[in-house]
Prior knowledge:
With 602 residues, the protein is an alpha+beta fold. The chain is built from 18 helices and eight strands. The chain has three domains: 2-124, Immunoglobulin-like, CATH 2.60.40; 136-180; 208-336 and 377-595, no CATH class. The strands form two sheets. Strands 4-1-7-8 form a four-stranded mixed β-sheet, with no helix packed on it. The chain is globular, with a radius of gyration of 30 Å.
Amino acid sequence: xxxxxxxxxxxxxxxxxxxxALLLIHNELLRTNLTVxxxxxxxxxxxxxxxxxVSASGQPGKAGIAAVSxxxxxGSILQFNSTLEEKEVCRLQxxxxxxxxxxxxVKHIHKGVNEIACNLVVNENPVDSNLPxxxxxxxxxxxxxxxxxxxxxxxxxxxxxxxxxAINSQETDRLINxxxxxxxxxxxxxxxxxxxxxxxPPSPHRLRCVDTFRGIALILMVFVNYGGGKYWYFRHASWxxxxxxxxxxxxxxxxxxxxxxxxxxxxxxxxxxxLKLLGKIAWRSFLLICIGIVIVxxxxxxxxxxxxxxxxxxxxxxxxxxxxxxxGLELLFAKPVLENCASERSCSALRDLTSSWPQWLLLLMLExxxxxxTFFLPVPGCPNGYLGPGGIGDFGKYxxxxxxxxxxxxxxxxxxxxxxxxxxxxxLYHTKVAYDPEGILGTINSIVMAFLGxxxxxxxxxxxxxxxxxxxxxxxxxxxxxxxxxxxxxxxxNEGFIPVNKxxxxxxxVTTLSSFAFLLMLILYPIVDxxxxxxxxxxxxxxxxSILVYVGHEVxxxxxxxxxxxxxxxxxxxxxxxxxxxxxxWVLIAYILYxxxxxxxx
Length: 602
């Protein structure tokens, strides 16, 4: 048998790539040719795709054989049909392993009986492709634990003294200074300035949890943009559902909303006029859009940027539009924030909501517009309210309806050539039309997401120094938004009223990711800002220089040391190592810039 398989591999060699396995199909049926069809378990309501034709057995004891590669990312469904009758003879469902070698034996169960069976045999065990991720996670966890232990030891005076003795010969001077206080320093207890110094100006308190949150979203974004080790769960979902890659952009939008309110309130309190601030908002939005179109544009991979093929929508373009709308709304209805509202009778227990009722009214109108266009706009050749991927989805009934109203509006107003040409839906659903996940209609829900971030910022500012009130409100928002998501999705990936979908930026996607965002803030705020148990390192540093890191990682993505030639281009381990190193380098760059007090602001 082993010699047979060795001979077969030589004659029918199939070049395997990452996330593929070798499947040998043995047709032991006499005078019955087989056509084998395939589809992924994750492909919802999809047509089967032809995989192979396998000729009939010429004589008893021999088999017609075909060798094919099959996907290992998700479970596969194989359907075996008789070629002439187009009648299903058997079906098999299995999750193949990467670089594994498998055989399917199609034969009669008993001689003279028409009942047919498909039996799977594992010829060669697959590799554990997830092992590099597990090892990387354990190494990262070990580094965090070691750093925490070292930080704890350094906080102990005895350990500090021992370290200092080992590296400094002037121990006597240090001990004298620690007991009596060095000249020209501030008394750590009283805060009084000693002779010979000037008191430094007080620096405004900055919420580290906000920058830490932004840094977490940004570093995850850099990692998945660099490839995420070529693992499917570090790529965007083909259509409905969530992967790790689908978390980062909405979180960035959310925390941008929080920053809008906190920074705007600070600037207005310093006496800046609303008109001048509006000019700054408009200029910043314009710069974000220009950088997105001119500098960070995926069509550069096609050669010099051609204006007739330039992608108009994009991440920075959406951030620019979202920033302008949300910041403009907040500026229009801005009110003074009382310093100590807890002692004021005029302060409502829901002042973070009641102070924003005009903004909420306009946001509800915008959301009504999204719902109206999504479900009632007539789209040629497509049913009203279509939310599917088109292609082979929905049993191939609507191949050119990708995205429904959202895709139609983009193609109508911008043209196919100015949209993203390689949408994630093409992977499983084989869509042929251009579709942009950062399109026009989805920007409405991006604005909603940012405004939910504004609410988080208002909670942090209005209930400053009232930790319990802040945590209660974060918990309430997390639960309310989570329940809305449950109602919209019916706790199902595909069967809900409005599924969670990053490509559409569906309202359920916004409520789900906002619920997660409030949960993350619920964790970060007490740990980072209240208790000081974690400084936010290393995420805090890229969070302080987010524009530079984002633009930099896009522009220099294909340059050394962020990318180099791999010995084995079909190895998850090598891709993961490269992507982790590249991401870590941007963290290091952000740390150096932070220490040098260099921050890119636009």
